[in-house]
Amino acid sequence: MAVAIDDTHRWTREEYERKAAEGFFPPDARVELIEGIVYDMAPQNTFHCTGIGALAEALRIAFPDGHYLRIQMPLALGDDSEPEPDLVVVPGRYIDYAYAHPTTALLVCEVADSSLLHDRRRKVPLYARFGLPEVWLHNLKNKTLEVYRNPVDGQYRSKMVLRKGETVSPLARPDISIAIADLFSW
Predict the structure, then answer these.
(1) Which fold has domain 44-183?
(2) At CA 65, angle to CA 55 and CA 167, rounded to 5?
C-alpha cells in the first residue's frame, strides 16, 4: 500500500512576517503568503506597471479624501494569508495602518498578465472567503476588466467582464463612472 507524504510546511502570517524581518527571503524576492503557502510573484513587465498606473489614476479620482489607495502592499487576511494586491482602496489614511496591515478593503484590484491563473484560482477566491465586497481583475491579456462582487459563502456570486466602450462604478462610489477604455489607453 502506498502512503502519500505531504511535506509542505504551511506558514502562519506570524511566521512569514518574522522570517521576512530576519532576512530569510532575499532582499529582491517578490513573494506573498496565500493560505499558508509562500508563492513567488512574477517580475513586473512594463504592461503590468502601466496597468497599475492606469488603475491608480482612475481610483485616486474616484476615492479622494477619507480613503487610502495602497499600491502593492499587504492585506492581513486571517492567520495564514498576506497577499499583496496590486491596488486596494481602504478607509482612512496611510497613518491608520502604521502598526498593522489592513484586514479588509472596499476594493481590491489585481493586474494580471502572466499571473492571470494565479490571480483567478487563488487570490480572487481568497478575497471572497474573507468577504471583501469587490475585486477587479485587470486582465491585460484580453483587455478586459473582470468585476467580482457579492461574496456569499466564500464565493463571488456576481462576475461581469467589461470591455472597451463600457464603464464601471465601484460599489463604494456608485456616483463615479470609470471608462474601461481609459484602463487600456496605451
Answers:
(1) tt1808, chain A (3.90.1570)
(2) 35
